[in-house]
Amino acid sequence: MAIELHQLRAFVAVVDEGTFTDAAIALRVSQAAVSRAVAGLESAVSARLLHRGPREATLTTAGSGVLGHARRVLEEVARLEESLSRPAGEFRIGYHFAVLGAHTVAVQRDWSALHPGNSLVFVQSTSASAGLHEGLVEAAVLRRVPSVRRIATELIGTENRYAAIAASDPLARRRRLTLNDLQDRTIAIDPLVGTTTGDLFFGRPVEVRTTHNIDEWMTAIAAGQAIGLTPESTVHQYRRPGMVYRRVVDVEPVSVWLAWQRDAPPDRIADLLAMMRKAYDS
Q1: 118: Cβ–Cβ under 8 A, 6 or more apart, which residues?
Q2: What is the tens place of the pLDDT at every residue in 29-63?
Q3: 5-84 classified as CATH 1.10.10.10
């Protein structure tokens, strides 16, 4: 069995686009080339993978079984290509929203001073592991640790929690807030990577508005449609007209973790860990 990458790409494209014609457009090849590639794949696996209808192509039972494997192979190849194309002299750190807050630039400068010719590059990601599990970064700054055994984590510091509220909200006139001040409000949360859950309110029901990125979160808050709870790092990194931050004094701080692949710790991870801890301790 000799399966080629272009065959997998053609097969997945037909499934995603619905027709051989649209798959050819997406791949920027001829329809005949797509047909040949899919036929070659079917020959290699000795099974028909697609029902060819007059208007669309649909998966056969065998095709459904092959599709998941094909996607995973293509994803792994994409990660490999991305890894090989990275510029030399970079240490890439994944993050979700605010990296290290007020400490970010100082850590980058200290790193460059300790390791001349090697840059600390922060890469934003929306995956649960901030790009670590996907192989896009060497390490990641996390405030929610994924339950993946092959990821090692070390605590680097903690951050106070702040409420993000509309500047026109009566609560904006106060310097500090408590959870009781917020319990009747709609809370904007990111369920995948955010640090706010219903547990913060001791099991009391709260109305939630789901957001999917920092811009959605800030837009809803500035419009007075919701409030947010966020680590202190967000306060230093994200400002928006019509929105203010106020310290919440009766809630546990947010833990900040440095994470990396347990079986393949990157070079100089000990230096980075020590540097980040020093920044949070200062």
Answers
A1: 89, 90, 91, 111, 112, 268
A2: 999 999 999 999 999 999 999 999 888 999 999 99
A3: yes
